């Protein structure tokens, strides 16, 4: 039995919106994503506050999230919707 379907596993990474670190504790990743940072997240971003005519920039935190996605693919030498071609 020759294997015809060789699905590729892809890891999709994303980061949540940058917010004040003290408010980031309860931030959740979007549906289907797994949070890979703990606590207040990673302090690697800046968020902005607009006050009248000024825009102030502050250091903030965000969470890193990942999602595993399986992309259907045929093994080498096979093709088509059912991977039967040779």
From TrEMBL:
The keyword Cell membrane does not apply. The keyword Membrane applies. It is found in: Membrane. One of its GO terms (molecular function) is low-density lipoprotein particle receptor activity. One of its GO terms (cellular component) is membrane. It comes from Nicator chloris. This is STAB2 protein. Transmembrane segments: none annotated. It comes from the Eukaryota. Keywords: Disulfide bond, Glycoprotein, Membrane.
